[in-house]
Design a protein that fits this description.
about 150 residues; about 55% helix; flat
């Protein structure tokens, strides 16, 4: 029967395809690997750009606004996403938000109050969570009288 084997193509025993030059030296293999890696990197970048064109999102800046966008979506205030980006109010500034900072990025009073209330509630939730000991901090209860010993 026929079997499929990739090993002859990996070690170079198979003939080169028309127009292909197979590497024969370690430097040739390294050059081939770099060339192949560069090709895949370019293709990956091209696919990412095409994806961004279809979604209308820029993934490199959205990374900095992940929690901000989540907060605005939870409050139904997605239309102010651009204000946060224009003011460079990224995720790491959420805990520092103030009424004056939100005024500077032209957020009206009603949405400002909602945002500040959300941030305050999040701070309280995180403070309570930080004081709760993790479940694994307690040693497991020892059963008495089983006669079992650990080796």
């Amino acid at each position: 029967g026929m079997s499929l084997s990739l090993s002859p193509t990996l070690v170079g025993a198979a003939p080169a395809a028309p127009g292909q030059t197979k590497p024969t030296t370690p430097a040739g293999y390294a050059t081939d690997a770099v060339r192949t890696g560069a090709l895949f990197a370019c293709l990956n970048g091209a696919f990412m750009k095409v994806g961004q064109m279809f979604t209308g999102k820029n993934a490199t800046t959205d990374v900095y606004y992940y929690h901000t966008n989540g907060m605005l979506a939870a409050l139904g205030l997605e239309k102010y996403e651009k204000n946060f980006k224009r003011g460079l109010l990224t995720d790491d500034t959420l805990a520092l938000l103030s009424d004056s900072a939100l005024k500077e990025i032209k957020i009206p009073p009603g949405p400002r109050l909602k945002i500040l209330n959300y941030v305050e509630a999040s701070k309280k939730h995180m403070a309570a969570y930080a004081q709760t000991p993790p479940a694994y901090a307690q040693p497991p209860a020892q059963e008495q009288g089983t006669g079992l010993t650990h080796a």
